[in-house]
Amino acid sequence: MAKRILIVVLALGLAGTAAWAYKEHRDKQAVLLNAENTYQRAFHDLTYKMDLLHDEIGNTLAMNSQKSLSPALAEVWRLTSEAHADVGQLPLSLLPFNKTEEFLVNIGNFSYRTAVRDLDKEPLTDKEYASLKKLYAQSRDIQDELRDVQKNVLQNNLRWMDVELALATGKEAKDNTIIDGFKTVERTVKGYDNADLNSPSFANFQNRDDNYKHLQGRMVSKKEAIETAKNYAGIKNTRSAEAKPNEKGAHFSFYSVSLKDKDGHEITADITRKGGYPIWFFTSARSADKTLA
C-alpha cells in the first residue's frame, strides 16, 4: 500500500515538474518571440524610413521657397528622428554603428534648423544646397545597402535573435548576412567623412553626446518618461501612451515615447533615462501642414 502511495506521489511530482518545465519553456519562447518581433519591426521600419527619407530629400532639392521648402524639411526632420529611434531598438550594442547614427542626426539637425528659419529672407546658400545634394546621394547608398539586407532577411527567414547571440558571444559567423550588411552600411557612411557637414546649420554630434554624459538627476521610469512627454506636449489625457528603452550600446540611454491625444494626434519624443530630459519632440500636424514643435 505504502509502495503504491509512493509511486502515485512520485508520478504526481514528475507530472508537476514536467508541467512547470513546459510553462517555463513556453514563457521563455514567448519572450524571445516578442523580442524577435520588436527587432524585425524596427529593422523593416528603418529600411522603409530610409526609402522615404531619400525621396523627401530629393523633393527639397526642387524647392527653395518658404511655403514649399519648410514643410518638406520638417518631414525630413521627422523621418530622420524616427529612423534614429528605430536604430536604437536594434541589438547593435556590440556592432559599431555610430557613424550611421551620426549621419542621421546631422541630417535631422540640418533640416530642423533650416525649416524654422525664414527661407524667403534667408534662402539656402550655395554651400547648403551642395551639402543637401551630397546628403541625397549618400542616403541613396544607405537605402540600397539596407534594401539588400532586407531582401536577404525576407528570402532566408533570418532572425535578429541569432544576431544578438552572435554579437553577445563574440562568435560572429562569417556568413551572418545581417551583421555583414550593417557593417557594409557603416563602412559606406564612413566614406562620407569628407562631406561638408560643418556648416553652421549642422549641429555637432560629438559635442551633443559629450553634453549628455554630464546629465544630472536620477534614472527615471517609463511612466515618468511618459508624464514628461505629456507635460512637454501640454496634454493631460491620452488615448494611448508607450515608452520603449533604447538598446544597450548607444552613447546614452533614452526612452522613445509615443503618445496619441484624445483627438488622435500623434506625439513622439525621446526622453533621457537619466534626469528625464527631452532630447527631441515631434507632434503631428493639426492641419494639412507639417508642424514643428
Automatic annotation (TrEMBL):
Q: Where is the Sporulation protein YpeB PepSY1 and PepSY2 domain?
A: 180-289
Any one GO biological process = spore germination
Q: Which parts of the sequence belong to the Sporulation protein YpeB N-terminal domain?
A: 28-162
What InterPro entries does its record include? YpeB_N, YpeB_PepSY1-2
User: Which key words tag this protein in UniProt?
Assistant: Signal
Q: Does the keyword Signal apply?
A: yes
What span is annotated as the signal peptide, if there is one? 1-21
Q: State the protein's name.
A: Germination protein YpeB
